[in-house]
Write a structure and sequence with these properties.
The chain is an alpha+beta fold. Helices cover 42% and strands 24% of the residues. Strands 1-2-4-3 form a four-stranded antiparallel β-sheet. Strand 1 and strand 2 form a beta hairpin. Residues 1-6 have low confidence and may be disordered.
């Protein structure tokens, strides 16, 4: 089972923690936090932890920093 298969679901959508997407994007946790704060990748805070919807992750991977 890979990281994508064991992600959480919310209202039928897959949600990923920043830790789960670090190896997918290939950047550090700190860089991901910067991307979130700059709006380069969309994320929501749930229970004190950032979560990224599968669609938003795909958008980031397809469009990179030019969203």
């Amino acid at each position: 089972m890979n990281d994508i298969e064991k992600s959480e679901k919310f209202d039928g959508m897959k949600l990923y923690t920043l830790t789960e997407i670090e190896p997918i994007i290939g950047v550090s946790h700190r860089s991901l936090l910067t991307y979130v704060k700059q709006g380069k990748i969309k994320a929501v805070k749930i229970g004190g932890m950032w979560r990224v919807k599968e669609k938003d992750l795909q958008d980031f991977l397809n469009n990179g920093n030019n969203q």
